[in-house]
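ok so for the tutorial part 2 we go from a plain amino acid sequence to predicted structure tokens. step 1 is just haveing the sequence, like this:
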Amino acid sequence: MNGTLQRIWMLLRLAVALWVGWRFGWGWGLLTLGLHAAVLALGFARLRWVNRGAARPGWGQLFSAWWREVLDSERVMSWRQPWREGAEPDFLPAGAPAAVLLVHGFTCNRGFWNGWMKRLRAQGVAFVAPSLEPAFGSIDAYADQVEAGVRRLQALTGRPPVLCAHSMGGLAVRAWWRKFGAAHAAPPRVITLGSPHGGTRMALLGLGANARQMRLGSPWVTGLAAVADVDCFWTPCDQIVNPAETAILPGSRAHRVDGLGHMGLLRAPAVWQCLQEALASASTPRRI
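step 2 — the prediction. this is what the tokens look like for a chain of 288 residues:
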């Protein structure tokens, strides 16, 4: 569903920009197409006041995060997710040494992970990346999809996969563990990127049950199950999850990344390195 909505939104943006360009001049049309960059700039600027103390980002960090996020958001929201959702199918090769379940965030789909899926395929690492549905339903509803992915990968390798989640996906993983954790012998290795473990102020602007659940300090988010083996990557320049410290799950291994925004965490070298270390420790011959 999110892919359909994003195709509609992208085509609407283009139609408005073309109309403005035809009516008032093509320079104005280009400016109209780039309005999202101005909106993003306002979101980054406010972080100087939202994040305080050691988490307060400098203007140089915010500028660096902003222009990268403009490019990342166009690449993901205007291309990969609307048009390339199925470009990288799930990869389940016989004899795979390790596996990872990739869980996307709010208003996204599996196309978010296309770059990573291509790299994992080249390494021979098995992966499953579901598109969580319903798009604006309760996060609890995603637990069954996470469990199905975990079971598929566990049947292939003989042990639990690494779970890597972006944004709301980290909460979907915790909702899964609350529902299905008792059925698993050991907690999985989890890596979250910009996940609002304590909620986020920006959820007030979102639509649907899942956005309401992600509101800062909501009863739902504070009542979620903890997961023992977690690495949390967070950035003071996160324009979606703020205050920034809400991306840190108490008791987790917290990793700060500077100069990157919410989507930019996906291409932080430290995140990829953490995943590689987790996969290396999870590698095992398939059990017969």
